[in-house]
Amino acid sequence: MPTPRADGDREALRILLSARREITTARTRQINRLRALLLAGDETDRDLARGTLTDNRLTTIARRRGKNGDTTEHAVRRAETRRLALSIHNASRELTENKQQLTELVTTFSPLLLDKPGVGPVSGAQAIVSWSHAGRCRDEAAYAALAGISPLPASSGRTTRHRLNRGGDRQLNRAVHDIVGSAQGLVDT
């Protein structure tokens, strides 16, 4: 890992990662609410709820207009689905902008990090933020313990075995999991 240039860069990464978690959580909650509203609606609404909510589907949901004979329930349901579709679309745009900012900062902080197999801007930023400063981790074993991926002895009697450490930085653990899975083709980053 490179020597940190300034604490401000690392703090900027930490802020962006925190914002990303918040936006992702809110977006997931909104998607769940939108699907629930659509599934409780008529057949057309249920068809829109099935499958992935792509940009085209969100645009279709946001552009739908009411009919003259709609009940108050239908009008409110349609207005709320429209609001949620627009909000989900905005959250997706914010996540894209967040990823671009993370890419710029990670590239500035460590130019070669994103060239490593499986390392994306989000996981690379988390690795930099968790690593913190030179001297925090004296070797690979210390970094593995920090990430919660080091083996711990779990022997009993004559049986010698190990289990994975469940402690450590959970966000770093997730980033390492994503990096390894992506490098092996198991996870899409």
Automatic annotation (TrEMBL):
Any single biological process term in GO: DNA transposition
Coiled-coil intervals, chain numbering: none
InterPro entries, per the entry: Transpos_IS110, Transposase_20
Domain Transposase IS116/IS110/IS902 C-terminal: 112-181
MF terms in GO: DNA binding; transposase activity
Transmembrane segments: none
Superkingdom of source: Bacteria
Protein name: IS110 family transposase
Organism of this sequence: Saccharopolyspora terrae
